[in-house]
User: Fold these one by one.
Assistant:
Number 1:
Amino acid sequence: MFQVFKKLAWFFKDQWLRYLVAILALMFASFLDLIPPRLIGNAIDAIQFNELTRTALSQTLLIYGGLIVLTYAIMFLWDYTLFSGALLLERQIRSKLMRHFLMMSPRFYSKNRTGDLMARATNDLKAIMMTSGFGILTLVDSTVYMSFIILMMGFTVNWTLTFMALIPMPIMALIVYKYGGIIHLRFTDAQEAFSDLNNYTLESIRGVSVTRAFVQEAYDLQRFKEKTHDVFNKNKAVAQMEALFEPTMKILVGISYTIGLGYGAIMVIDNRISIGDLVSFNVYLGMIIWPMFAIGELINVMQRGNASLDRVNHVLKQVSDVQEPLAPVEVKMPLTIQFNDVTFRYPGLKEPQLININLTIQQGETIGIVGKTGAGKTTLFKQLLRQYPAPEGNLLINGVSIEQLSLDRTRQWIGYVPQQHILFSKTVRENLLFGAGKTSDDVIHQMLISTSLKSDIDALSNGLDTLVGESGVTLSGGQKQRLSLARALLMDPEILILDDALSAVDGKTEATIIEHLKEQRQQKTTLIAAHRLSAVMHADQIIVLTDGRITEQGTHETLMQENGWYKEQFMIQQMTEEVATE
């Protein structure tokens, strides 16, 4: 049960002073709580024997008032110190998770669903926070506070009466232990069910347009109902076990009260204790109810925290496929990029997606990459983006293996416009400046002109300050594509990768954008993958990929002299455009 504290030892070691102050203050507050019942007992005895004077009563009330003020101050100290520490732990683990998510490769996200990761970053972190805050409170109260009460009952009243009243304690400990194990299993199942629901909800919201298009709203609602019902049942199972704690405790406390009152009354009759002692004893017996409940709460919180911490650690222990080199080689500028017999296969697949790729790219060149769908164009780009482990063969930058270069350095060189355009739920301006930082409006407007986006942005309600909505939902496909392109160009990267980035624009707009690219990208390397061959006609080199192999290579003019796939595809596209124009 207490393994969770061992797993969090790194945090408690770092925050030892905070927790030491909180625990000592909590223990001192617990000690102060034991004084008033004794004062009440003494006052009752004084009344019984006609010994209570006005002076003694005034002193008692004065002490009582002082204890109230002192207890308030001490309680504020331990409460603030302890629970601020719990919030600090939640913040640290959440930041650690976020850093981990940013460092992980695509394989990690293919193995872990988004909803599941979100559940770990929300519900599980809340359970861990409860462990480091409320868990510490219940631990101290169920051990130190209970011990203080028992010692006070024994030393100031009677040990025999104390032992008799605490007979139910071992039974309670055994029952609580059994309950704790069951709660751990059921809570883990409940968290897994919540992860499934979270993931399904995300997918359902993202795919709402497809759901409507296929008239599957009723089916989607039914699936959602089944998921929520599963979460409800599993959380209900946890609640059922937790609900058993309170009546179990009440029964055991009731037995203790019965023993304490019955046997205590006999001892009063036998003059072994006074009436004041019996009153104090019963007040202490009432005070011990919370520590008894605290044992149950402690088991509950520990099991929840342990289950959640295991789930979070399972994510944090997963290592990225791509690692930072121990001693990275410093390369200031990517003057040459060489693919020497590069072969690559995705993890878990037998067949390679790139086979014996040989390609040399000089700084300032524009490279066109074409081929059928699934030929390996995006996979080729991913080697430069370092989203997967280094391929077989050699991928060199300035003659240095890309594995020996810093991840940050290689990625800083690259501006990437992917097929799936990712826009954030921010303004147009914030999306444009995502990688470029502070940039003047004049530069932004010039870039909008270069990407044929100026008139579109001016037509929006608030121009550059218009919110684009979730994933750019307020923009058309072509606008999102050009906005992604403008964002990459504002970075002025050494290497610009356009992965079919002009597919959603018309031929005239494409031609305008290409002309601006030729002007702005002089002395900078540009890689363009496209299905429309008109987007790569101007390239210094064009390669044709077929099933992961380079089958044709050269300029537009040289490839047109060959009777290969490129010439055939170009002629087909030209005829299609002519027909469309007519």
Number 2:
Amino acid sequence: MKTLIFKRFLWLLILLSAMVLAVTYPVYLQYQQGVKQRLLANEETSVVAASQLIQQEMDEQLHVLGLIQHSARLKDYLSSFDEAHRHQLELYFQQVSTAFHRFDQIRLLDNAGRERVRVSLVKGQDTITPKAALQDKSDRYYFTEAKNLAKDEIFVSKLDLSVKHNEIELPHKPIMRFSVPVFDHDGQRAGVLVINYLAKGMLEKFRQQMRKRANQQGMLLDEQGYWLSNHKRSNEWGADLGKPKHTFANMYPEEWPIIARQRSGVLETKAGIFRFETIQPFNFNTQLPSHFMAQHDVVLTEQSNNNTTWKLVIFVPYDYIHQRSFLYQTMGKSLLILLGILLVGAALLIAIVSTHLRVRRREQRRLNEVLHDLYDNAPCGYHSLDDQGNVIRINQTELDWLGYQRQDVINQPFSQLLTPDSKDTFEHFFNGFTQGLPQENIVLEMQRKDGSTFYISNSATILKDKQGHFSAARTSVFDISERIELEQRLELLANNDGLTGISNRRHFYERGTFEIKRAQRYYQPLAVIMIDADHFKNINDQYGHDVGDLVLQALANKVNENLRETDIFGRIGGEEFALILSPTPVTFALEVAERLRRALEQVVVVTNKHEEVHFTVSIGVAALSLPEQTLDDLIKQADIALYQAKAQGRNQVVLYQDES
């Protein structure tokens, strides 16, 4: 009897154990897979954020490179190669370097590879290299690769450590070199523009992004598997530092061939899970937010694309996965032991299934809370509009930008949040959008509750009802105030004289030509005044060019103090200044000129040695008299009168008289 009971017990035990195992094992596998998927889903945020960070950084460098390449000061120098334009270009390079503070060097090489202008970042200061210290770079790869490129082609080097005097600079300087051909005003090839971009800031942002992850094992590799960034800093720059074994391939010999061959994916190994993604920071055709796209068409050479093909690799060890798995924790092990002892198959199975259901519901709620938090606290703004343009949903980020509470905005017209000028732009954009016309990167100026404004770039997608009609617009909003401010600042640099702050020659001629045509159209009087500092060369020779610069600045400031808002004032030569008065009769122009002469006669410039420098000016005046006259004609006439003033003893005003 006992033997039979024991045998039946064994069979029942085996059967119940098999039933429990058959039911619980798939659940276990599914649960473990769910843990992995949730961890990988969280890692996707890091992958996307890091990829966008790198591509945005590269997009900004292309933007700056294009601005310098097409700048008027660069083309002016390339068309003349004279010292005055060279000095202006040096100041422009220095101003750009100071504005961004991320370039180790900005250089202009001529067609033979000889440096013409170089500005370097030395001990945190943007320093102009003296002409005598400029070097021949004709044998350097960044010149040979770029010297024969087409007009819109760009060469980009590998990201490596800077070498100076055949030794790696300390502290380490990760650098990428951007080279582009440049052309003069006539479209003739005139040299190569090279900027050395310091990638230290970009790599530090990448590391900060990786440190936000739980296990912080995020890496950036070059095409050979050397670390550009690693959570263990000692592994970085193996190729540059002569450490050929410090590669991903050496540490993970089985994983590297797969990661190197495939563009992206997930690789499970014995040690853990690798999530990898190929980053090509200059491939702007990828599905990234439109505000990261390049602002102009550029063509990179094939070598440039090879140089900048990187791998982003995130590693999640199984130890970390197990820490997140319920079954590897104390409570899970206790349940397994209890299940093996009691063999209450059905009850235990129901308990496991119900527990899993509750865990899943709780996890879903948590995920919903995370998604809601990501929506509300995203780094960009989000809002949705109904078919009337009223706000039906908005995230907290955008509310914080505006300074409003949610109840102040919901069900209110979105146009009320815009400045008057942007309302018309929005109405045009929204009407076209509701008709199904594509609308992206629309720039609007929003107005905060306190009255201040900021610029946004927004892209929208259409939500349709079941009948296919427009239902709502879901819009992502990016604050681009810094970019707009940068563009305005660069425009100011392009139009203003670097020394005195007034209009430069090009900008003066643009405004002056328009003003003369307007005066001729409406038959209004107009006068041109030329001002030249007397004995300016003697001032430079006696006190030095720095004092000469102070004299020119004092001259410009004093003239500005005595002008109207409608007057046009610019520096058109070394110590030559021009002034356009409109609408102004010649008698009044002569009074203005005499008043300026007397005012400038009283100016005192104090040098660093506490010496007082006085100066006078000679002034020539010419009046618009013929309908076919141009600005050049008036400038020449005023210049003739100016030289008459100098010939008659200087420090006086002379009106041009037509002797014909």
